[in-house]
Protein: DNA binding domain-containing protein, excisionase family
Amino acid sequence: MKEQDSIYHLMFRDQSDVLHVKDVQKILSISKHQVYHLIESGKIRGVKVGKSYKIPKVSVIDYLIGNSND
Structure:
């Protein structure tokens, strides 16, 4: 658990704890459509606020290290 905690603190330190679709696009080098697909499929958590999604940075990290909700 300690190792996982350090991963969360080290990855994407320069990013806010809450990301926008454009941020996730840049981090993962994927299209906007692919980001929406990841959210809709539950692989990355996202909350719709108004017309945009707010995505917890920890959710993107979970996806990258294989802890996403498949």
In short: DSSP finds four helices and three strands in the chain. Residues 16 and 29 are 18 Å apart (CA to CA). Helices lie at 2-10, 21-28, 32-40, 57-65. The longest helix spans residues 2-10.
